[in-house]
Amino acid sequence: MRYFKLLSISLTILTFCFVATTNLQAQNSKKMPHWEVRAGIGLLPTFMKDHAKTELQPVSLEVRYRPTQKFSLGLLAGNSISQAMQEHHTGETRLVRNNFQMIALRGALHSNPFEKFELYGGMLLGYTNSNIDYTTQSDKKDSEPSFFPVPKERDGLFFSAFLGTSYRVYNNVSLFGELSYGLSIATAGVAVRF
User: Fold this and answer.
1) Rounded distance, CA 97 to CA 121, Å?
2) CA angle 54, 60, 64 (to 5 degrees)
C-alpha cells in the first residue's frame, strides 16, 4: 500500500511536470524565434548641436531576428538630411547641406520586467556616409570655398550603443523609444512581429 501511494504521487508529479513543460514550450514556440520589422523617426537629430535645420527627419528601418527571448540581432538602415548656415569672420556665408546615411548591425539583450513592457540595450557596428554640399551666397555650388576650412569626412566605420524600451499594443505590434548616438539621439517608432 505504501509503494502504491508513493508511485501514484510520483506519477501525478511527473504528469504535472510534463503538462507544464509542454504548455510552456507551446507558448514559447508561438513567440520564439521570430522576425521584427521596425520603422523609426528621429526626435533629436545628431546634428542639432551644429544648429542645423532638418530637411529630412532621421528615418530608419530595421529587420531584427529574435532567436530567443533575451537576444536579438538586427540590420538597420537610416537616412537624414540637414543644413546649416556658416559664417566666416570676413562676412562670407555659405550653406552646408549634409545627406547622412548609416547602415548598422545591431545586437541587443532584452528584459521583460512587465507583461507588455520590455527593456533592451545593446551595441551597434555600422558604416556611415556623409554627402556634404556647399552653397555660397551667389547660389553656386563651391566644392572648395576659399575662406572656410573643409570639415573632415564622416565616412567610415562607426561604433555606438543604444538603450530602449517597447510597449506591446497588440499581439504583434509594439511601440518603441530609443536613446542612441549616430543617426538620432532619440528615436520613436513602430515594430511589427511576424
Assistant:
1) 32
2) 165
Sequence-ordered list of residues with C-beta below 8 angstroms from that of 193, at least 6 positions apart, any chain: 34, 35, 36, 66, 172, 173, 174
In degrees, rounded to 5, the angle at the alpha carbon of residue 70 between the alpha carbons of residues 64 and 71 is 35
**Residue 46 CB-half CA count within 13 A:** 21
Q: Give the tens place of pLDDT for each residue, 123-143.
A: 999 999 988 888 765 555 554
Say if CB 59 and CB 41 are below 8 A apart.
yes
Would you state the cell numbers that stand for residue 173, as one nine-digit string? 505590434
Angle of CA points 82, 88, 92, to nearest 5°: 90
Question: Is the pTM value of this prediction over 0.90?
Answer: no
Place of cell 565616412: 155
Contact (CB, 8 A) for 58 and 72 = no
